[in-house]
Amino acid sequence: MSILVTGATGKTGRHIVRELLSAKEKVRIMTRHPENVGPQPGLTVVKGDLTAPETLSEALDGVDTAFLFPVLPAIGPFAEAARAAGVRRVVLFTGAWAAGHTARDLGSWVLPRYRAAEDALAGSGLAEWTVLRPAPFATNALWWAASVRDEGVVRLPYPDAVCPVIHEADIAAAVVATLLGDGYHGTRLTLTGPALVSQAEQVAAIGEAIGRPLHIEEIPAQRWRADAERFLRPGIADDLLREWAETAKDPSTALPLLSTVTELTGRPARTFTQWATDHTADFTAA
Ligand SMILES: NC(=O)c1ccc[n+]([C@@H]2O[C@H](COP(=O)([O-])OP(=O)(O)OC[C@H]3O[C@@H](n4cnc5c(N)ncnc54)[C@H](OP(=O)(O)O)[C@@H]3O)[C@@H](O)[C@H]2O)c1
């Protein structure tokens, strides 16, 4: 039997695939662009689209366990198709806002959307399901890559905003732990990084990693929001701005630090300094 990984070509998914292959698992990945994936021992590549349920049957063939990438409207139909195809276990990630750890998160735009997707998985009749809810990803700092490379500048509002951002390799390690381990059925677990890090500290860590001091240009929230519409849904941009405004003013309102990554993986979560070191090429290559 194989483990199906969706979102496998993405920033988090590629770590999931790497870890599963190192554990000698048979891995099947589903992508909309199989022509972009090179052959690897133990890996089967299948063409499919989460938003087109008719493309899922080939991906689910011979699959016992699956990681489901959060294309939200597709969660229910995928879970139904997986159950019908005899899949036993599905692991999904959504986001920490779904947990409602803070009053701000309870009123967020994204919470009901994440919860509806999680509930569609939970109600699908699958024998086993698990939801992981990662904190904002350290990879969000890649939004700054072009201006860092070109100008040595990061333009952002609320440089003092803090968050326990999480390394995508830790999200992947937690996904792999729940794909392969027992005892997580019916659980929804929030994942955080090891420390609260401000946006200014993130910029400094990137500068340190690439050996180039970086300048922060503080911009008004509304200018950031207008720019962010190129890559974020407006509701998520508003949720982020609210979080940044509140945590910049009062860091005690940030998402609490949790030890879930260590409990699942047996290792402490990676620091943002580690993330910056792992991503120097993103901030230096042309
Ligand atoms: N950024 C945050 O702070 C944060 C926090 C919580 C949750 N999240 C969630 O995490 C996601 C980003 O994760 P990431 O950075 O690992 O992803 P990513 O690098 O943006 O990669 C996206 C992946 O999703 C696949 N995909 C997208 N649409 C698909 C579809 N219709 N059918 C099949 N595959 C599809 C892509 O596969 P192909 O292109 O190969 O088909 C690709 O592998 C966000 O979308 C969000 O839902 C983000």
What secondary-structure arrangement, pairings included, does this model have?
Layout (H helix, E strand, L loop, with lengths): L1 E5 L6 H10 L4 E5 L11 E5 L8 H5 L2 E6 L6 H10 L4 E5 L9 H4 L3 H13 L5 E7 L10 H7 L1 E4 L5 E2 L4 H13 L6 E5 L5 E2 H12 L4 E4 L2 H8 L5 H16 L10 H6 L6 H7 L1 H5 L2
Helix pairs in contact: 1-7, 3-5, 8-12
Bound molecules: NADP nicotinamide-adenine-dinucleotide phosphate.
The site of NADP nicotinamide-adenine-dinucleotide phosphate has 23 residues, from loops.
Question: Would you write up a description of this structure?
Answer:
The chain has a domain at 2-135 and 167-192 and 256-269: Rossmann fold (3-Layer(aba) Sandwich). The protein has 286 residues and is an alpha/beta fold. A seven-stranded parallel beta sheet has the order 3-2-1-4-5-6-9, with helices on both faces. It has a two-stranded parallel sheet with strand order 7-11. Strands 8-10 form a two-stranded antiparallel ribbon. The protein is built from 13 helices and eleven strands. The mean pLDDT is 97. The radius of gyration is 19 Å and the shape is globular. The structure holds NADP nicotinamide-adenine-dinucleotide phosphate (NAP). NADP nicotinamide-adenine-dinucleotide phosphate binds at residues 6-13, 31-33, 49-51, 69-71, 95, 134, 136-137, 139-140. The site of NADP nicotinamide-adenine-dinucleotide phosphate has 23 residues, from loops.
